[in-house]
Specification:
single chain; mainly beta; seven-stranded mixed sheet
Length: 117
């Protein structure tokens, strides 16, 4: 069992920045993918960014160049640095963990990001 604890989120003005973090604990695997998805009511959940345990990253086309996902301090914690935020970035952001060795998927509880003046 893997538990995901998200932090960050909140209200930010257009053009501002915000940082999210997700810490995984429990029976984590040495090979995994962690990342962030976001969802707006009435729309499907979409990929924001993810990172593999060996360092490869992926970004949604709408955020590449503005957002950065990283794992700089601990293998079990990932960060999402969001810059140049736009009102259309407003959504609930969910952390996701996927074990490669064991095909098990886990989701965080979600955190609200609101971009508004």
């Amino acid at each position: 069992q893997v538990q995901l604890v998200e932090s960050g989120g909140g209200l930010v003005q257009p053009g501002g920045s915000l940082s999210l973090s997700c810490a995984a604990s429990g029976s984590t695997s040495s090979r995994y993918v962690m990342g962030w998805y976001r969802q707006v009511p009435g729309r499907q959940r979409e990929l924001v960014a993810n990172i593999f345990s060996y360092g490869v990253t992926n970004y949604g086309d709408f955020v590449k160049g503005r957002f950065t996902i990283s794992r700089p301090y601990a293998e079990s914690t990932v960060y999402l640095q969001m810059n140049s935020l736009k009102p259309e970035d407003t959504a609930v952001y969910y952390c996701k963990y996927l074990s490669i060795d064991l095909p098990q998927e886990y989701w965080g509880q979600g955190t609200q990001v609101t971009v508004s003046s």
